[in-house]
């Protein structure tokens, strides 16, 4: 999936993946896609809830070799 920006939050525990995601999302225009890489297993529920509460859309999430990847569309 194409993304406009990628952030690496691997190795960070909650709440850092959310903090990094919010900072990066603030730099994007509405409709652009942010790709987030994280290793914290709680990131899936955290990012899903955060996206919903912020009016953003979780387009897709996958896991490859212990790395969780998320694609979030800015609302």
For the secondary structure, the number of strands is 4
Oligomer: single chain
Order of helices and strands: EHEHEE
For the largest sheet, list the strands in their spatial order.
1-2-4-3
Task: Tell me what portion of residues adopts beta-strand conformation.
Answer: 25-35%
Which CATH C-level class is it? Answer: Alpha Beta
Q: In this structure, how is the largest beta sheet organized? A: 4 strands, mixed
Shape annotation = globular
Helix content: 25-40%
Can you describe what's shown?
It comes from Bacillus haynesii. InterPro entries: TusA-like (IPR001455), TusA-like_sf (IPR036868). Pfam families: TusA. This is UPF0033 domain-containing protein. Residues 7-31 form the UPF0033 domain. The structure is a single chain. The chain has 75 residues and is an alpha+beta fold. The protein has one domain: TusA-like domain (Translation Initiation Factor IF3, 2-Layer Sandwich). The protein has 2 helices and 4 strands, in the order E-H-E-H-E-E. The chain has helices at residues 16-26, 43-53, and strands spanning 5-9, 33-38, 57-64, 67-73. Strands 1-2-4-3 form a 4-stranded mixed beta sheet, with helices on one face. Strand 3 (57-64) and strand 4 (67-73) form a beta hairpin. The longest helix has 11 residues, at 16-26. It is globular. The two termini are 18 Å apart. The relative contact order is 0.27.
